[in-house]
Specification:
By secondary structure, this protein is α+β, with helices and mostly antiparallel strands. It contains eight helices and 14 strands. It is 29% helix and 32% strand. β11 and β12 form a beta hairpin. The two termini are 18 Å apart.
Length: 243
């Protein structure tokens, strides 16, 4: 990763910038206008420095995360149109083999964290600064929330606020907190919405047992605490080394 890549990751993980599934980039002051006749780019401003970043790379980071910086990985346009930066049109190759988002997620599910990865891969719709509902994976929403909490005294406005993220996550039975310097996630036990979201994976009825067996689980069951108005007991997961 070069200095521009690092700046891009920080800008989007902190919530100062946001990219939609259609490939539009938004900052706290509105839409960041792309430039260039092909391989469109945008200016990103961070700590009073300007960075020129390809929109293709921003969308790829949203879709595949830090995997895009692995050695040998290339970012491709599925239809060959270098101005089409829709999420569905961006793929990556690794060792000359195309990796789709589905394959990437499938690779993550090959270890004992299957159930946990299912939860982190749930889609949530968070209301952004300009009234846009942006779809994020739970892992993306958590990354933004934890980083904003760490820099809560920072003066800049964020595209997505902590309150909106937490509100949406609590509707799904998830509650991020920071305690004693650790990033924690409370996961409600027997939460009807979370059960429904996990139905397709087969983890809906016994996700508490699956999560409790992980090294990241600090407390098997505690509480209750409030999740968007519902009092629920919960499992405590240590996210410090995960997100």
């Amino acid at each position: 990763m070069n200095i521009t890549d690092i700046a891009m990751v920080h800008a989007f993980d902190s919530g100062k910038y946001l990219v939609s599934n259609s490939g539009e980039v938004f900052g706290s002051d509105g839409n960041a206008k792309p430039f260039g006749s092909k391989n469109l780019k945008v200016n990103i401003f961070l700590d009073e420095e300007k960075y020129i970043v390809p929109v293709q790379k921003i969308v790829a980071y949203k879709k595949f995360g830090l995997k895009i910086f692995d050695p040998g990985v290339k970012i491709l346009y599925a239809d060959g149109n270098t101005t089409n930066n829709k999420l569905s049109n961006i793929n990556i190759t690794s060792n000359d083999k195309t990796v789709s988002a589905d394959n990437f997620i499938h690779e993550e599910k090959t270890n004992k964290m299957d159930c946990f990865n299912e939860i982190l891969s749930i889609s949530v719709a968070v209301v952004a600064l300009h009234g846009i509902k942006e779809k994020l994976l739970v892992r993306e929403a958590l990354a933004i929330w934890y980083r904003q909490q760490k820099h809560s005294n920072t003066a800049y406005r964020c595209v997505i606020t902590q309150d909106n993220i937490k509100m949406e996550l609590e509707q799904k039975g998830l509650k991020p907190i920071i305690k004693d310097g650790k990033r924690l996630l409370y996961i409600a036990v027997a939460h009807s919405t979370l059960r429904r979201l996990l139905e397709h994976s087969g983890d809906s009825t016994d996700y508490r047992k699956a999560l409790s067996s992980l090294d990241a689980c600090l407390v098997g069951e505690a509480g209750p605490t409030r999740f968007a108005g519902l009092q629920k007991r919960y499992i405590t997961m240590d996210m410090t080394n995960i997100i």
